[in-house]
Amino acid sequence: MAPILLWLIMVLCLLISVVKYLMGVILRLSSPRAKAKKDYAYQPTVSVLMPCFNEGKAVYETIESISQSNYPGDKFEIIAQDDCSVDDSYEWMLKAQRDFPNTRIRTGRNEVNSGKARTVCNALQLSAAEIIISIDSDCIFHPDAIRELTACFAEPNMGSVGGRVGVRNPNDSIITSIQTIIYFSAFQLYKIPENYTRSVCCISGCLFAIRRELLLQIEPAIRARNWFGIPVNQGEDRFLTHQTLLRGYGTYINNDALCWTTVPNTLSVLFKQQLRWRRSIVRDFFFTLKTLPQHVWKLHPNTVFTLVLVPLGALVGFLVAVTALTSDPLAWVGPMPLVTALGVAAILSWVVKKYSAREALAHPLAFGAYVAWSLVSSLFLTPLALCTMDSADWGTRTKEQQAEEQKEGGVALGNTNS
Amino acid sequence: MATPTLDPSSSEAKVKAIPSPKRAPARQALHYRLVLTLYRVFAIAVLYLVLTGILTYAFVMGFYAVSSSWAAPVILSASDEKSLDFRQKLVTSQQTIEDLKVDTQKLNTGLAEMTKHRTALLALEPQLQSAIARERKHNLATGPELATLDQQKQADNQKTQKVLAQLKELESNINKDLAAGLITKGDAASQLSALNQAQGNYTDSKIAEVLLTDNVLDKTTTGTGSLDILVKQAELRSEVAQLDIAISVAQKQLHEESQQIDRLRQAIATAKQSPYFLNASGGQTLYFAFVPYNNQASAVAGKPIYDCYLNMVLCRNVGTVKQVFVGEENATHPIFKTALRGFLIQMDLSHAESAKSQTVFLGRKPLFF
């Protein structure tokens, strides 16, 4: 009975994924409603909140890209908030403030290290703008990004709008190639059906716009997030999106609002990032289950299914992988998964090359390695996430790492990921 | 839409840390601490368990990738389809042998009869030849003599005929004498009787001449009688020839059937070496195991068999290899689930439950403990 149930859930999750990707293609080609009504004349005041921790020079580059925005200069500001970085991030912030006088840049610094979510809240205190855009401090933004995001708020019920996150380093390694395809397909296909119902379940924290009054409503909940008394400072983007939906607002991804992030290019960094994301998914899933009647009552069925079944799939994926490995250990190295992955790679890399030349892949068939990664992901990430829910570790950059780097080679100015 | 601008005043600000959420009441804090402690203990246990499981799994995979002494016990039930099929075929073969035996017996008997008959026919041939030769020789000798006699007889008869012509005149004279009363009736009758007798003798002599001529013809030319004998001779030879063919066919059939019997007996003998035959024969419980060809070197009759916990450790001797079967079998790898080619062995198990183990090891303990 139990294995049947597991397979049933897995099949449902896969079905939802496949249906969503197919629906994404269909809706992109056929339905205008999948795209939000944009009004570029609507130009609210905007605060771009940039929490930062140990990002070094990347902070400067990020501010530089934002300052080149074509949004009216008197309508937006950058609030860079340093979360007690131990490197020279704050100095780079100040340098950017000096170097880009035409842009209103405000800098702040937490008194104690508080984590990304609370740093955003702290930065929010300095803002009086109508629209708050939270960004990652290691991303590069398209000049149209702010304009594109704010234009979507012309729809009165729009609560949060996200941008499309592209990959800056698609050809660094096999790992970055795989992520490029996944990022592209997720934004361009997977989230389109969610866009159609204005119920995107997770807007990326790289480029997240939200109405100020809504963020103020949610802020206490962000600050109160904890795991049996331990503050939770991860997955604020998923949490914010979820809260937006529960408050009756719409969420949307505007694929014309572009930003570029540097994705992990080593397995260990990728693993830590994915572990952090998986913790967020699990935490969000528990929250969904806890308030399921509220979800069923308020949200679109597509949203509820996505919020429940996809994380459930990640949870039972471990058991399914174990069952598969014990009943037919070599099945995953058989030709079918590889052929499927290569087929997907061939199609998607062609699409990426055509529609996003900047992300064109040098070795598209490297996506075949996704078969191995999916096995690793199913086997390790979920149990590890479940067993480290009390961890506040960001994973990809810690104080200890930074201190070590400083000891070894002075101030590190390299680009890192958040 | 009204779009206010931002206040361009201060461009730098220090943000005071927003105080963390109020500390939970002592009771709740205790509750949290308790839950967290339990969670962490549980999490560490689970993670170690997962880690151990993964390492064990990886080791098992590696171990079975290189091990060359494992065998997978196979339980053949009495109602095993292959065994039943085997048994059915065996019974059919045995029945065929019995039928063939009856056939060969019949053929042997028929063959003996035909041979006997042929011998008898062949024995007639020289006798016939001898009789023909003898008769021919006799004819050659008597033929000309009879021909001479026939000629003499013909000459005699011609003479007699002439005499008889004179007798007719004499008969007339007798009748005249009688009529004239020269002679008595008695004398006349006596004289006429003598004349008739002479006539009769002549007729007899003529018949004898004809017969003699006929006889001469028989002895000097090939007549129908001789032809009859030749026909009989030909028939005799034909019958012998037919018998030869029938005997040859029967011998061939006998040979074929004998060979078929041998083949079936050989097949049955081979079949008796099969585990399925042993299983189908019923009686005591038998234990078998599948051995892949890669592990063939370990499958030697008499070698000890070990059964282990977790498929590889804490092994114990559970019996020996009793018999190695030659027929090829296909099976699924117990761990990798891939298709394998190999053969079966019969195990002499002292621990019957080992027949239910996923694998056993032949020859020695796989990890030396």
Q: What's a quick, concise take on this entry?
A:
Chain A has helices spanning 2-30, 58-67, 89-99, 116-124, 145-151, 174-190, 192-196, 212-224, 236-246, 267-290, 292-298, 301-327, 335-355, 370-387, 399-409, and strands at 46-52, 76-82, 104-109, 131-135, 140-141, 158-167, 207-211, 226-227, 230-231, 250-261.
H/E element order of chain A: HEHEHEHEEHEHHEHEEHEHHHHHH
- Biggest sheet character of chain A: 8 strands, mixed
Describe the biggest sheet of chain B? 6 strands, antiparallel, barrel
Helix content of chain B: 55-70%
Q: What is the molecular shape of chain A?
A: globular
Overall structural class of chain B, as computed from helix and strand content, comes to: alpha+beta
CATH C-level class of the largest domain in chain B is: Mainly Alpha
Main β-sheet, spatial strand arrangement of chain B: 1-2-5-4-3-6
Could you tell me how far the N terminus lies from the C terminus of chain A, measured between alpha carbons in angstroms? 42 Å
Radius of gyration of chain B: 60 Å
Assigned CATH architecture of the largest domain in chain B: Orthogonal Bundle
Strand count of chain B: 6
Radius of gyration of chain A using CA atoms only: 21 Å
Question: What is the helix tally of chain A?
Answer: 15
**Element-by-element helix/strand order of chain B:** HEHHHHEEEEE
**How many separate domains make up the residues of chain A?**
1
Determine the mean pLDDT of chain B.
Answer: 82
Instruction: Please name the CATH architecture of chain A.
Output: Alpha-Beta Complex
**Share in β-strands of chain A:** 5-15%
Number of domains as seen in the coordinates of chain B = 3
- Low-confidence parts of chain A, pLDDT < 50 over ≥5 residues? 399-418
